[in-house]
Amino acid sequence: MRPAERSPVTLPEVPGIGRAYLRTLTARRGRSGLEPVEVRVDDVHLDPEHLAEYQRLLGEPVADTAPAGYPFVLAFPLMLTVMTRKGFPLRALGMVHVANRVVQNRPVRIGESIGLRTWARDLRSHRSGTQVDLVTQVLDAEGDVAWEQTSTFLAKGTRIEGLPAAADDARPELVPPVPTARWRFERSDAKQYAAVSGDRNPIHLNPLLAKAFGFPRTIAHGMFTAARVLAAVGAERGESFSWDVDFGRPVLLPSTVSVRVAHPERDDATSSGKGGRLAPFELAVWDPRSGKPHLTGTLTPFG
């Protein structure tokens, strides 16, 4: 859908996350398709203290540039606003984040004015329910897209009449590679990330409610795991890149995971002359006992 076909809903400021979450408890599912609207906020500025808190938690160096996972946190209340508008066909509470793609054309910096835009698209069937994409853009003062994200969410067990049958999207089995690290995830990590990100979905914090949504115990935030992997790539990612992750089985808390962040090698086919670039980083997080993936993905620096 082209931007001109979406009706803008301009908010004076990014909504408080508590208010946005309260709406997830009261919002009712609509019976139609996706509403062609774009929720937007203009003239947003990064909070230096909040950014530094996020950077420290994820192991990123404290700097005036935001890591590529931070705009997700910044825009999350807008995403909830879209998913809790009257008529949205899925219930936000209990939805599972199953994939995330970011294209960062340049980093967002402290002191600049940015605009946030979020909308929903591509409502589709899945073998386990229904999926939808939430697209978010960060625009600079000139209106150029500095950062764009597509977050895919799954509403398990929810079926919507009229959608085409689900494609055969079964993922290939992960052959566990040689790990480059092992990480320990504790319940306290989920509490700290929830405090910084505002994502207080009960599946991350409350064991009883996590069980009510089908999990044996609380689970780590997917974007916490992904952002830790991003931090492990470090400065080699450069300032512009694409970053793709698919989330597999949730990381149960507490638990230990195996991690692989592979250093890229120069791709001879593309490295000569102008436009040369590094091959993608290989990203993976998995259960060391079962070999089942928690996260797989790539990060490709732009040359």
Question: Can you give me a brief rundown of this structure?
Answer:
This protein has about 300 residues and is α+β, with helices and mostly antiparallel strands.
Description of the structure:
- There is one protein chain.
- The protein has 303 residues and is α+β, with helices and mostly antiparallel strands.
- The chain contains 7 helices and 11 strands.
- The longest helix is centred in the first third of the chain and has 14 residues, at 70-83.
- The chain is globular and about 45 Å long.
- Mean pLDDT is 88; it is low at 266-276.
Topology:
Blueprint: E1 7-11, H1 17-26, E2 37-44, H2 48-58, H3 70-83, E3 96-104, E4 114-126, E5 129-139, E6 145-156, E7 181-185, H4 187-197, H5 202-205, H6 207-212, H7 222-233, E8 241-247, E9 255-262, E10 281-286, E11 293-301
Parallel strand pairs: 1-2
Antiparallel strand pairs: 2-4, 3-6, 3-8, 4-5, 5-6, 7-9, 8-11, 9-10, 10-11
Helix pairs in contact: 1-3, 2-4
Strand residues, percent: 25-35%
Largest pleated sheet: 11 strands, mixed
Count of DSSP helices? 7
Question: Could you state the oligomeric state of the chains shown?
Answer: single chain
Average pLDDT: 88
Low-confidence stretches: 266-276
Structure summary, number of beta strands: 11
Task: Work out the helicity level.
Answer: 10-25%
Rg estimate, integer Å: 19 Å
User: Span from first to last CA?
Assistant: 29 Å
- Classification by helices and strands: alpha+beta
- What gross morphology would you assign? globular
Q: Please write the string of helix (H) and strand (E) elements.
A: EHEHHEEEEEHHHHEEEE
Order of strands in the sheet with most strands: 1-2-4-5-6-3-8-11-10-9-7
